[in-house]
Amino acid sequence: MVISRPTEWPKCIVIVCIMMFLLIESSEGGISVIEGAVDKGAVCLDGSPPAYQLDKGSGDGANNWLVHIQGGGWCHSVEDCVYRKTMANGLGSSKLMPELYFSGILSNQEDQNPYFHNWNRVIMRYCDGSSFTGDVEEVDSTNNLYFRGARVFNAILDELMGLGMDNAKNAVLSGCSAGGLAAILNCDKFRGYFPSSTRVKCVPDGGYFAHAKDVSGEYHFEQYYDKVVTLHGSANHLPSGCTSSMKPSLCFFPQYAIQYIKTPVFVMNSAYDTWQVSNILASYEADPNGEYTACKNDLNQCSSTQLQRLEGICDQASLARFSRFE
To answer: EC number(s) per UniProt (predicted)?
Structure first.
């Protein structure tokens, strides 16, 4: 599979989670909480049960399933996770989750979503902060923190299999941002839930975070992923072929993990995106003096030297993403 890269640098393109937030007519499925998962230790950061939303399929789509993983970053420290579990968006607790709309690739409107409108469409709600890879048995009782993302992933899929997904003819695992990363890292696990007769594919959107040098010439975001993987105990739920050949936190980067994934993956990602420029390539850690602050927020404020530097780094990040598919 060959993916071409832009040859010009007009601007960095914001990562847009195309599949979830298009402003079109949408359907809405209420939140289903899996109370029984608590007994299996499959819980959100705060110990609340996992949750999902389902809009059931019909007609010739009744036996097809699209499972979309919600995005929302990660938490890399106890303090960060304590804050996350209290956030009103429910990214650490099913008790606080607002309902999400089914839009874009999740819409039930045929004119807006001709291929998937009548499939069973699921939003896997994100409440663990590890892209569904964490699994620490010990509970942080002082802060009431649970790191069980991998178990949450399993519990939701177990629930869906009992609702008819075990009879799926076609099954797609998608996700946006951190959910897109989760779709990559959990792709083969998802495949394992189905018989060989089921067609299974994974479609991450905006989840291909690059391991690339930042403006300081270092890999500061690698250190962030080091902390995420260590805190959440993620190593055992990353592709084993990858973790046996390099340190586990590097396997959180798709450019390394994806070569060990056997299930077909179709990557949707901007060649250049402003989130990665702001939070990885020119983050505070990489640019503590703020030399790139104005530049990364408005390219018109960049000096020619800064623009050339960012262009070179974005090219490096872009190559890291797309070289795996050439």
So the answer is: 3.1.1.-
Task: Provide the residue type at 309 as one letter.
Answer: R
Pairing of strands 120-124, 64-69: parallel
| Complete edge-to-edge strand list for the sheet that includes strand 120-124 | 31-33, 51-55, 120-124, 64-69, 170-176, 199-205
What type of residue sits at position 274? T
Burial 183-210 (b: 16+ CB within 10 A, else e): bbbbbbbbbebbeeebebbbbbbbbbbb
Sequence-ordered list of residues with C-beta below 8 angstroms from that of 189, at least 6 positions apart, any chain: 153, 154, 237
Tens digits of per-residue pLDDT, 215-240? Answer: 899 999 999 999 999 999 999 999 99
The pTM of this model reads 0.88
CATH of 18-269, one of 3.90.700, 3.80.10, 3.40.50, 2.60.40: 3.40.50
